[in-house]
Write a structure and sequence with these properties.
Structural class: alpha+beta
CATH topology of the largest domain: Heat Shock Protein 90
Strand content: 5-15%
Helix content: 25-40%
Radius of gyration: 20 Å
Order of helices and strands: EEHHHEEHEEHHHEEH
Number of helices: 8
Low-confidence stretches: 105-121
Shape: globular
Strand order of the largest sheet: 1-2-4-3
Number of domains: 2
Distance between the termini: 28 Å
CATH class of the largest domain: Alpha Beta
Length: 206
């Protein structure tokens, strides 16, 4: 999964089931790959009915005025592009929205630096957030290298808990966002991340 200013990219390894196309999926065609798992999910209430998921997502996006869901099948993988409202802080509209939503006294706008929005309060998502940012200040690193430096086992749970929140906040970015599962994938500080580390070091924060 990769987060961009105007869309979220979700990649699923493996091709579609025989006879299923992207067009038929959007129309509601559903072919189960694993009947056992599907039945368990159905009995647990995680599934309402077959083939309604994509149609529901597509309808919801349209009603929200976010545009069309885009699906691409290539090289034995499915890529789903989910449109979202732009998070590009360089646009005047988003900057105004950020200023309206962030409470006075909890933020500080640096007028000297164009397109840069800062908050006075740093609220780390997890106890390792500051350490990860300072580690990446030395340069891009792989997931294994990041968690080895923290003394944390590098698994998907640790990635979701500690790295994803920093990516969501645009403090950390992937070096290869178009291929999130690439074996050569590394993580680096964004401009906002580097600025935050500088302020943390200056203020002596952990």
């Amino acid at each position: 999964m990769a987060f961009h200013d105007e869309f979220i990219l979700v990649e699923s390894p493996g091709g579609l089931m025989p006879g299923v196309t992207v067009e038929s999926m959007v129309r509601g065609v559903s072919v189960l790959r694993n009947w056992v798992v599907a039945r368990v999910f159905r009995e647990l209430g995680y599934i309402e009915s077959w083939g309604v998921g994509l149609r529901t997502v597509t309808r919801t996006l349209r009603e929200a005025g976010l545009g069309e869901l885009r699906l691409e099948e290539e090289h034995e993988r499915l890529r789903v592009f989910v449109p979202i409202r732009s998070h590009d802080l360089s646009t005047q509209e988003v900057r105004q929205e950020v200023e309206q939503q962030v409470a006075p006294g909890k933020r500080q706008v640096e007028h000297q630096v164009e397109h840069q929005v800062e908050r006075e309060v740093w609220e780390p998502p997890t106890t390792h957030s500051g350490a990860i940012l300072r580690f990446l200040a030395d340069g891009p690193a792989s997931r294994a290298e990041v968690f080895a430096a923290l003394g944390v086992h590098s698994d998907h749970r640790a990635y979701t808990r500690h790295l994803v929140p920093l990516i969501d906040r645009a403090l950390v970015a992937m070096t290869n966002p178009d291929n999130p599962t690439a074996s050569t994938q590394k993580y680096k500080l964004t401009e906002a991340g580097r600025d935050l580390v500088s302020r943390l070091v200056k203020g002596g924060s952990r």
